[in-house]
């Protein structure tokens, strides 16, 4: 029996950009799937197809057992969507926003009003309930947006980068809300470019790049794929990258991944702390100054690098990361498994945005 | 943040399936209410919408008034009466830009995505917006008519006919707000919607009988002016208000000879065409 969210061979093209290039998903009821990938990977397009905002070119999908293409309006009754932007009317108060959404979910006015009151309490917005949402902080607006997505307690929720742009405290708060929701039995599809977030919230993770799912599994399974521990080195001087890589290759059990712009190199190793000491001695002997070195358990970032040959974006780069996304992949992309369409230039978000129009 | 499980379960039982015209009307009114609340909270928008036509009345009556001949008259009182229908009609069509900018702004902020993910009637987001704009237009017309009366505008027909004239103006304005909706859905930014919603209105309202006697235009422009849907409503209002100047010769073009009927036909045609296009565009709109 297919899961609460099920997709098979979803394809969506914008002009000659294949934003989705045959995506299969299966999310069992009551679980969280994390769709992880850089900007422009196709995460948002996938969410838009599953939430009836876009019609895929081919493929099929069901949400809560309902065919998305054949019965979009029935699907809309069963889903809540919280997007990348807090989609609330800034001139309406928190209460008015939630009442409006409730009524548009076809609740009676009185019912919608009661529900709005409950949600405002639950999301700690009661004090600000009757102020225009324009006056809310970023975190409050996100909470209001999430509350709006939960007005009918939909069995299936979609959250597109719910914590992008939030400070750590607000992110933590939102994570708690999400966990509470899932504990209550909601099925959730969550997109994120924060590896930590997927690790923290999702039962299963799909890594997407260039419109394809390039890996799937639990966080542990994905980490296992990249092998055991690894040594990570950040050199002080960009000019030392080549020499340091050579040293690491000598000690490592696999490819050395190099992130040119952060001067960071990572290599899988066996041998633990003893080996680390040897690496330090050797680097020192060659006169390479290091800013940071450590023995790391694999992170999802490592998973990403080993799968795609390029790093996922740095989350803290915020909006600028979008513009840089294209430039990033260039130098150290050693033709990963995605030698498909559009591998020449990275699918930057700018391109996708244009295509979305 | 405590979970209110009991009510959650109750709500999970689900919203009743609703459909048809009742749902459309209800959803449209919910959205209209939202837009009306916005108007109250951002009164500047309504205020600027009022200042502009008042300024036009003053500029045209006092600056051009004495030098524009309408019909056989050069009297500034006759011109003032002649002008008002034109200003009223221009005012209702300029409201188009507001609808466009508002909808483009909703797209930009992700609100249209939210609405499109809700099980609501298809055209309701746009209908709600255009209804709210209609209310704003009506308010503007009332204030403008008051100012015009103060400045010396006089009607010479019965009250019913005058109301009918304002009805035609509102119908024209409502039809045009759907053009604005389509523009708003088609552009990338609210700024583009504002300018895109305005530029084409200048030739439309100036190549018309709104400010001058169309009989005096060069032949080419005269034909455009006489078939212009905008002129048709202006002509209809002049007849209904009793504001045709002495010695005015009604042009032979069919819409000028039957302005009330032609005005209704034009407005309904524009409404049907642009409503269809806008609703279709809405359904496929991408933020």
What is the secondary structure topology, with strand pairs?
The complex is a heterodimer of chains A (357) and B (287).
Chain A: E1 5-14, E2 17-27, E3 32-36, H1 43-50, E4 58-63, E5 66-67, H2 72-78, E6 79-82, H3 94-104, H4 109-122, H5 138-149, E7 156-160, H6 168-183, E8 187-192, H7 195-201, E9 204-209, E10 212-217, H8 219-225, E11 230-235, H9 241-251, E12 257-259, E13 264-268, H10 272-285, E14 290-296, H11 300-308, H12 318-329, H13 349-356
Parallel strand pairs in A: 3-8, 3-9, 6-7, 7-8
Antiparallel strand pairs in A: 1-2, 1-4, 4-5, 9-10, 11-13, 11-14, 12-13
Helix pairs in contact in A: 3-4, 9-10
Chain B: H1 5-12, H2 20-41, H3 43-64, H4 76-94, H5 96-108, H6 111-116, H7 124-150, H8 159-186, H9 190-199, H10 201-206, H11 219-227, H12 229-241, H13 254-257, H14 259-284
Helix pairs in contact in B: 2-3, 2-7, 3-4, 3-7, 4-7, 4-8, 4-12, 5-7, 5-8, 5-9, 7-8, 8-9, 8-12, 8-14, 12-14
Give an overview in words:
The complex is a heterodimer of chains A (357) and B (287). Chain A has 357 residues and is an alpha/beta fold. Chain A folds into two domains: 5-224, 3-Layer(aba) Sandwich (Rossmann fold); 227-297, Lrp/AsnC effector binding domain/regulation of amino acid metabolism (RAM) domain (Alpha-Beta Plaits, 2-Layer Sandwich), CATH 3.30.70. Helix content of chain A is 38%, strand content 23%. Chain A has 13 helices and 14 strands. Chain A has helices spanning 43-50, 72-78, 94-104, 109-122, 138-149, 168-183, 195-201, 219-225, 241-251, 272-285, 300-308, 318-329, 349-356, and strands at residues 5-14, 17-27, 32-36, 58-63, 66-67, 79-82, 156-160, 187-192, 204-209, 212-217, 230-235, 257-259, 264-268, 290-296. In chain A, the strands form three sheets. In chain A, strands 6-7-8-3-9-10 form a six-stranded mixed beta sheet, with helices on both faces. In chain A, strands 2-1-4-5 form a four-stranded antiparallel beta sheet, with helices on one face. In chain A, strands 12-13-11-14 form a four-stranded antiparallel beta sheet, sandwiched between helices. In chain A, strand 12 and strand 13 (264-268) form a beta hairpin. The radius of gyration of chain A is 22 Å and the shape is elongated. The two termini of chain A are 36 Å apart. Residues 314-357 of chain A have low confidence and may be disordered. Chain B is built from 14 helices and no strands. Chain B is mostly helical and 287 residues long. The longest helix of chain B is centred in the middle third of the chain and has 28 residues, at 159-186. Mean pLDDT of chain B is 87; it is low at 1-17. Chains A and B meet through helix 2, helix 3, helix 4 and helix 6 of A and helix 1, helix 2 and helix 6 of B. Chain A: This is ABC-type xenobiotic transporter. Chain A: Residues 326-338 have a biased composition (Low complexity). Chain A: Residues 316-357 are annotated as: Disordered.
């Amino acid at each position: 029996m297919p899961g609460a969210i099920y997709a098979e061979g979803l394809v969506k093209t914008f002009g000659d950009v294949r934003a989705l290039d045959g995506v299969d998903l299966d999310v069992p009821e009551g679980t969280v799937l994390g769709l992880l990938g850089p900007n422009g990977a196709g995460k948002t397009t996938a969410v838009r197809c599953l939430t009836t905002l876009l019609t895929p070119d081919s493929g099929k999908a069901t949400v809560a057992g309902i065919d998305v293409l054949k019965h979009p309006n029935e699907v809309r009754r069963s889903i809540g969507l919280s997007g990348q932007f807090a989609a609330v009317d800034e001139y309406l108060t928190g209460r008015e926003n939630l009442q409006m959404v409730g009524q548009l979910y076809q609740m009676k006015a009185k019912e919608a009003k009661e529900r709005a009151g409950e949600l405002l309490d639950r999301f700690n917005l009661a004090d600000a309930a009757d102020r225009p949402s324009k006056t809310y902080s970023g975190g409050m607006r996100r909470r209001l947006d999430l509350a709006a997505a939960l007005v009918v307690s939909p069995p299936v929720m979609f959250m597109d980068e719910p914590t992008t742009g939030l400070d750590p405290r607000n992110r933590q708060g939102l994570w708690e809300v999400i966990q509470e929701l899932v504990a209550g039995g909601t099925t959730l599809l969550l997109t994120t470019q924060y590896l930590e977030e997927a690790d923290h919230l999702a039962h299963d993770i799909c890594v997407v790049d260039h419109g394809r799912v390039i890996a799937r599994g639990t966080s542990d399974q994905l980490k296992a794929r990249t092998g055991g521990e690894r040594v990570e080195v950040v050199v002080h001087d960009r000019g030392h990258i080549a020499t340091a890589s050579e040293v690491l290759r000598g000690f490592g059990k696999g490819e050395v991944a190099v992130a040119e712009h952060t001067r960071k190199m990572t290599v899988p190793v066996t041998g633990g702390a003893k080996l680390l000491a040897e690496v330090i001695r050797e680097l020192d002997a060659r006169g390479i100054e290091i800013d940071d070195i450590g023995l790391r358990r694999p992170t999802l970032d490592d998973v990403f690098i080993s799968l795609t040959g390029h790093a996922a974006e740095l989350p803290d780069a915020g909006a600028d990361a979008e513009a840089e996304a294209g430039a990033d992949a260039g130098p150290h992309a050693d033709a990963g498994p995605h030698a498909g369409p559009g591998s020449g230039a990275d699918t930057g978000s700018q391109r996708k945005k244009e295509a979305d129009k | 943040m405590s979970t209110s499980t009991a009510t959650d379960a109750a709500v999970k039982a689900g919203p009743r399936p609703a459909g048809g015209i009742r749902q459309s009307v209800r959803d449209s009114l919910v959205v209209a209410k939202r837009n009306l609340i916005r108007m109250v909270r951002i009164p500047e928008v309504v205020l600027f919408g009022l200042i502009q036509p008042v300024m036009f009345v003053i500029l045209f009556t006092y600056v051009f008034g004495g030098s524009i001949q309408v019909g056989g008259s050069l009297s500034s009182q006759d011109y003032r009466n002649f002008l008002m229908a034109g200003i009223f009609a221009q005012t209702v069509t300029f409201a188009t830009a507001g609808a466009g900018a508002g909808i483009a702004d909703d797209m930009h902020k992700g609100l249209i995505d939210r609405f499109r993910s809700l099980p609501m009637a298809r055209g309701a987001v746009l209908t709600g917006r255009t209804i709210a704009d209609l209310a704003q237009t009506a308010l503007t017309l009332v204030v403008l008519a008051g100012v015009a009366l103060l400045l010396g505008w006089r009607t010479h027909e019965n009250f019913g006919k005058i109301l009918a004239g304002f009805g035609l103006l509102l119908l024209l304005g409502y039809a045009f707000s759907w053009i604005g909706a389509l523009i708003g859905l088609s552009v990338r930014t609210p700024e583009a919607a504002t300018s895109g919603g305005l530029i084409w209105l200048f030739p439309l309202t100036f190549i018309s009988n709104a400010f001058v006697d169309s009989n005096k235009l060069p032949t080419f422009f005269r034909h455009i002016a006489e078939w212009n849907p905008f002129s048709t409503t202006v002509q209809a209002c002049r007849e209904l208000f009793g504001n045709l100047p002495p010695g005015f010769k009604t042009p032979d073009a069919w819409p000028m000879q039957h302005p009330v009927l032609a005005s209704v036909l034009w407005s309904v045609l524009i409404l049907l065409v642009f409503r269809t296009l806008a609703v279709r565009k809405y359904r496929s709109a991408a933020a």
